[in-house]
Write a structure and sequence with these properties.
494 residues; TIM Barrel; Immunoglobulin-like; single chain
């Protein structure tokens, strides 16, 4: 039952001194959208040779290390861009961001590599799909006969000089579902996440009159367009739950569902692009809703409350636009973002997502620093998906702590009767006394561990520690913590 060792790099017990004055959540979703389109977040540049491919891999590992160090736990990785993908596909060409040409082979599988590296660090990896847009005229032309426009012209429409899959064509949902199936059958992703699952802005003029005449029946065109998206959402959710029920399905709709009585002039809303995410939640066809809430003040806070009121027991995780911190964009202050995090924490939201990775990795205006040192100071478990399962894993047994040179080795195992232990993740709790309280985030040493062995670096000359270990299944349901194991550490043998 021994799995690959999980090494906690740069983790120093001597520095883990709980600050009990602040209330930190034990469970919270802490996510980031990592864009691959145009290499915005990864990869930084195409690879011309093996050395370039190795540099891409190192770049991703360095960025994931930063997220791990700041106690993030979810990565939404863009796997489908605009009619191209980041993995070897039988359906769409590999994106040119990896080699400089569409369909090029970088010498490794970017999605497979990313999933493995995320899991090594206790991060979930959710496959993020751009749904209907398939690129500009030039983008599509550069893909030639491999573009979906060339291969499946009956599914595609041009609108405002960009190509889109036609949501009203029934075969469009077959096509999108085929991409989902391909990813789930070939990769151990933890979630499927959809963006641009909507009609484009100004879609009153979308060229689907012929499709509407054929399939609209007696519905008005607004209801028909909304239903086209609703059916796709439901169909994807139902298939995923039949195939891999633990895989989370989520969507990032526009951040404002519709105008509110107190905000009648709300600007562009989900309603305007024929999205009905509150209906998806009512019909229980989402595990998590992640609205793009890239606004401030009255265009943010009342809409948070509106999502909370309509989440129907599923997880609401607002997406914050940290790209707005950039001087070349909106030049927001750091206070604008942290005030939003404070409000989210005080509400019943399940966590927060940031768009996009680059401002974090560059620590724009100190946003990474404030998350690492304050808001995400301690690790957090992911909230349980209790509507999918209520089964609690067995408690880990045989927890053992021993010194090996300058490291501390912690091992454990699962009871012989435990089933599917290879699908478990583990959490280690600790304290600097002979008792461990597993309800406190401050006592979480590490979580999301996918092995039964951990090595910890040590610095202090002498101290006492107690540990407990719990197991969580793929629905994030946690076992009872193990019995406490006490360890006294000294520089000298005693």
């Amino acid at each position: 039952m021994k799995l690959t060792p999980y090494i906690l790099l740069l983790l120093t017990l001597a520095l883990q001194r709980p600050a009990m004055a602040v209330d930190y959540p034990k469970r919270e979703i802490r996510a980031v959208w990592m864009s691959t389109i145009y290499g915005m977040d990864w990869p930084n540049k195409p690879a011309a040779n093996e050395a370039g491919s190795k540099a891409q891999q190192k770049e991703l590992c360095d960025k994931l290390d930063m997220l791990k160090s700041a106690n993030f736990n979810v990565v939404f990785l863009q796997v489908r861009l605009r009619g191209d993908v980041i993995y070897p596909s039988a359906i769409e060409p590999m994106s040119k961001v990896f080699t400089g040409r569409h369909g090029g082979n970088p010498g490794y599988d970017p999605l497979g590599f990313a999933v493995e590296e995320c899991h090594k660090r206790g991060l979930e990896c959710h496959a993020w799909f751009i749904t209907y847009p398939v690129g500009t005229i030039d983008d599509v032309k550069s893909r030639g006969k491999n573009s979906v426009v060339a291969r499946r012209p009956e599914l595609c429409k041009m609108f405002n000089r960009e190509w889109y899959l036609n949501p009203g064509a029934p075969a469009t949902s077959d096509y999108i579902l085929s991409l989902v199936r391909e990813v789930l059958r070939n990769y151990d992703v933890d979630g499927i996440h959809f963006d641009h699952i909507r009609y484009p802005e100004g879609a009153e003029g979308f060229p689907d009159s012929e499709t509407y005449a054929r399939y609209g029946k007696s519905k008005n065109i607004r209801a028909w367009r909304q239903d086209n998206i609703n059916r796709l959402v439901a169909r994807i959710y139902d298939w995923v739950k039949r195939y891999k029920p633990w895989v989370q399905v989520s969507t990032s709709p526009l951040g404002k569902y519709s105008p509110l009585p107190q905000i009648p002039n709300a600007g562009l809303t989900a309603f305007d692009v024929y999205q009905d995410p509150q209906e998806w939640l009512r019909k229980e066809k989402q595990d998590m809703i992640v609205p793009m809430m890239y606004y401030k003040d009255n265009y943010f806070y009342p809409f948070v409350d509106n999502w909370i009121d309509n989440r129907n027991g599923r997880y609401f995780v607002p997406g914050l636009g940290i790209y707005k911190l950039l001087p070349g964009d909106a030049d927001w202050s750091l206070k604008d973002i942290v005030s939003q995090i404070d409000y989210i924490r005080s509400s019943k939201a399940a966590g927060v997502t940031f768009y996009r990775g680059m401002p974090l990795f560059r620590d724009t205006k100190g946003v990474y620093t404030v998350l690492k040192n304050k808001y995400f100071k301690y690790p957090a478990l992911l909230p349980p998906l209790t509507w999918l399962s209520k089964e609690r894993p067995e408690t880990p047994v045989d927890v053992n702590v021993e010194r090996e040179g300058s490291s501390l080795r912690i091992t454990w195992s699962m009871p012989d009767e435990a089933e599917d232990y290879t699908d478990l993740c583990y959490t280690i709790y600790y304290s600097r006394s002979n008792s461990v309280n597993p309800t406190l985030a401050q006592n979480i040493l590490a979580t999301g561990i996918r092995s039964t062995e951990v090595y910890l670096a040590l610095e202090d000359k002498e101290f006492e520690l107690s540990f407990r270990v719990s197991a969580s299944n793929r629905y994030h349901i946690e076992s009872r913590p193990s019995r406490e194991v006490y360890y006294y550490f000294s520089e000298y043998e005693k």
